[in-house]
Each structure stands twice: as C-alpha cells, then as structure tokens.
Amino acid sequence: MFSGEATAVYARSHEGWFGILPGHAPAVFALAPAPLRVTTSEGTRSFHVAGGTLYVEPERVIILTADASPAPEGPPR
C-alpha cells in the first residue's frame, strides 16, 4: 500500500505504541491490530493493519500483514 521515503513510522505492538525514526537499530516487532502511521516530507498517511510483523533494517522498514487498509486521519487510539 505504501512504498517511499518516510521520516517516521508509528505502530502498536502487543506491549504498546512505538516509533521508528531514521537510524533505528535493526529490530522485529509483532504488531497488534491497530492504526499505523507513516510520516513523509509531504505529510502523514494512516493505515489500519490487522496485526502482523514489522521488520526494521538499516535502510528500510518492512511490514507484513494479512490485511491493511487506508485509515481516516486522526490521532491513534
């Protein structure tokens, strides 16, 4: 649903909300069903993911989920 440069990614794991910024150490997170926000130089795009896995690599973030859809803009809940 999204491929491009991001300045931040905000998502929710089963332990709570977290953010990924440039330079983040490699990591793997289990995602909870929740909104996911991608911030770019043009603004913020929001999606709803049905859980899944988020992988942080040195130059990219990969999100694997069974279902994702655009979400209305607004604060995460």
Task: Please tag this protein with its features.
77 residues; mainly beta; ATP Synthase, domain 1; six-stranded antiparallel sheet; globular
Note down, in words, how this protein is organized.
With 77 residues, this protein is an all-beta fold. It has a single domain (8-70), classed as ATP Synthase, domain 1, CATH 2.60.15.10. It has no helices and 6 strands. Strands 1, 2, 3, 4, 5 and 6 form a 6-stranded antiparallel sheet that branches. Strand 4 and strand 5 (60-64) form a beta hairpin. It is globular, with a radius of gyration of 11 Å. The model has no long low-confidence stretch (mean pLDDT 91).
Topology at a glance:
Layout: E1 8-13, E2 16-20, E3 27-40, E4 43-57, E5 60-64, E6 68-70
Antiparallel strand pairs: 1-2, 1-3, 3-4, 4-5, 4-6
Rg (CA only): 11 Å
Count of DSSP H/I helices:
0
CATH class: Mainly Beta
- SS-derived structural category: mainly beta
Strand percentage, roughly? Answer: over 45%
Number of domain modules? 1
The backbone outline, from C-alpha atoms, is: globular
Described by strand count, sense and barrel closure, the largest sheet is: 6 strands, antiparallel
Question: Poorly predicted ranges (pLDDT <50, ≥5 residues)?
Answer: none
CATH architecture: Sandwich
Instruction: Output mean pLDDT.
Output: 91
Q: End-to-end distance, in Å? A: 21 Å
The H-and-E topology, N to C, reads as EEEEEE
Number of strands: 6
The CATH topology turns out to be ATP Synthase, domain 1
The helix content, as a percent range, equals under 10%
The CATH homologous superfamily is called F0F1 ATP synthase delta/epsilon subunit, N-terminal
